[in-house]
Specification:
Order of helices and strands: EEHEEEEHHEH
Number of domains: 1
Helix content: 10-25%
């Protein structure tokens, strides 16, 4: 599923407050155009209406490709460096998603429990390209475990 939220945020340059839309998760099977926007650096981007400043909204973000059966989660390194409680709420000690017991994923989506974790958006893009290259190379062996 694709999850998009809107919040009022202040410009890091001039302080102007405005409504900003950002994604917490994208599913590129449902919204393939979002992959291209991610690759162009257009997702979760703050554009100030007053001064024109542009800045990345640096939030935890999940990329999910249901067709190719993988997901990758961006975790801003600041959360790691600050030893944020958000980390222990989101992940188990093994690095798996801390999914509430009342939520059951379908058996075909078992890979969602262990997203590949990256600490930069550039790393996310390179990982997606890596997985797509593997998928293309092994297109004749599309058996998911």
């Amino acid at each position: 599923m694709t999850i998009r939220e809107e919040q009022i945020m202040g410009c890091p340059s001039c302080g102007h407050k405005q409504k900003v839309g950002f994604y917490q998760a994208i599913n590129v099977k449902l919204n393939p155009e979002l992959k291209e926007r991610l690759f162009r650096g257009e997702l979760n981007l703050y554009k100030c209406e007053k001064c024109g400043n542009r800045a990345v909204v640096d939030l935890v973000f999940l990329y999910h490709d249901a067709d190719k059966h993988f997901c990758v989660q961006y975790c801003p390194f600041d959360l790691v460096a600050q030893r944020s409680d958000k980390l222990s709420n989101m992940y188990t000690v093994e690095g798996k998603l801390n999914i509430p017991a009342n939520i059951r994923l379908p058996e075909t989506a078992h890979y969602m429990y262990e997203p590949h974790i990256v600490l930069s958006l550039d790393e996310m893009i390179r990982y997606v390209q890596f997985r797509e290259a593997l998928y293309e190379k092994h297109a004749d062996k599309k058996k998911w475990h």
